[in-house]
Amino acid sequence: MSKKTAAVLGAGSWGTVLATVLADNGFEVIIWARRESTVREINEQHRNSRYIPDVRLPRSVRATMSIQEAIRDREMVLFVIPSQSMREVARAAAPHLRKDALIVHASKGFELDSLKRMSEVLKEELPTALREKITVLSGPSHAEEVAKKSPTTVVVSSERQQTAEMAQSYLINPYFRVYTNPDMVGVEIGGSLKNIIALGAGLSDGLGFGDNAKAALVTRGLAEIARLGMAMGARPITFAGLAGVGDLVVTCTSRHSRNWRAGHMLSQGMTLDEVLERMGMVVEGVKTTRAAYRLARQYQVEMPITNELHAVLFDRKDPRQAVEDLMCRGKTNEMEEIVQGW
Ligand SMILES: NC(=O)C1=CN([C@@H]2O[C@H](COP(=O)(O)OP(=O)(O)OC[C@H]3O[C@@H](n4cnc5c(N)ncnc54)[C@H](O)[C@@H]3O)[C@@H](O)[C@H]2O)C=CC1
Ligand SMILES: O=C(CO)COP(=O)(O)O
Description:
Layout: E1 4-9, H1 13-24, E2 27-32, H2 36-45, E3 61-64, H3 67-71, E4 76-79, H4 86-93, E5 102-105, E6 110-111, E7 116-117, H5 118-125, E8 134-138, H6 143-147, E9 152-158, H7 161-171, E10 176-180, H8 184-206, H9 211-231, H10 242-253, H11 258-267, H12 272-279, H13 284-298, H14 304-314, H15 319-327, H16 334-341
Parallel strand pairs: 1-2, 1-4, 2-3, 4-5, 5-8, 9-10
Antiparallel strand pairs: 6-7, 8-9
Residues 108, 140-142, 195, 198, 247, 250-251, 256-259, 284 line the site of 1,3-dihydroxyacetonephosphate.
């Protein structure tokens, strides 16, 4: 019997590791990468040392610089690129997709110009027949740990349950447990907004604040994620799940998180530009802070942590002053806020 086939668009840490998950599940996988050196290294040495060092890739994972070659005739195509590049890549991919391809995206963010979710961008760019084949993959899943086959749980969601179940059956294995959730809006919003709070958690840790501060950020962060999410049409219970509190906890507490690390570097006095240059990988929370700041105004939702982080990132507000302003803002009744938000 011939092997199932998949293409992964994006040769960063997450795209490369998702390719290994699919290879472990019996897929023939081809990664589309932009750099010739990355393609050569994957094909000849079975490594992608720039993004995920120390990981040996299975032989059934290959790479190409041709998007057409990557996508042609593949049953499944994964988009795993920074959210600001999603539209451009979807447009380039569109003419080459199989008419019945399963489309999965694993990116966490909003398109800044339009404030759209990634599935909305894909819907606009891909052929109409593929609209109901669009799926989001989200949840607490640092690539470095999945690469070690450390037990991981994620969630997939699509407008059509059958599509989500197909993605689930392709991706699930003994170290990668995949749940479905019918709330695509909530899954995309939870996965995107948690990066803002993770930046704040890195800042908080770097400033020497303790576990109380971290717990406050996670809890109050979840409240404002849920408030905006619900205003945008998400179901509140999704934020109690893997794409909500699950991803929020892992990103706020893990040294693997690029968002946490970026916040930590900022706390040590580096400028945002210096941090992004040093990181060399996408820090989605930066653009997501801008997007959420605008969305909060559009939907008239209160997001105090996002507002303060926006001021720290883009107006160079002193983070200690930001924390003081958060602590001293108007008195609030937690129960009333929770009832309003949830
Ligand atoms: N790294 C992780 O553990 C996880 C990442 N994600 C999400 O996955 C997405 C990708 O993240 P990573 O793989 O970590 O990023 P990364 O920074 O490691 O790699 C991004 C890759 O996309 C490529 N790329 C950027 N712009 C492109 C364009 N216009 N055309 C083609 N390729 C382009 C880069 O060359 C690079 O290979 C992000 O939205 C991230 O939030 C989600 C879950 C886990
Ligand atoms: O989304 C992630 C883990 O679930 C990855 O987070 P970072 O982008 O902060 O590394």
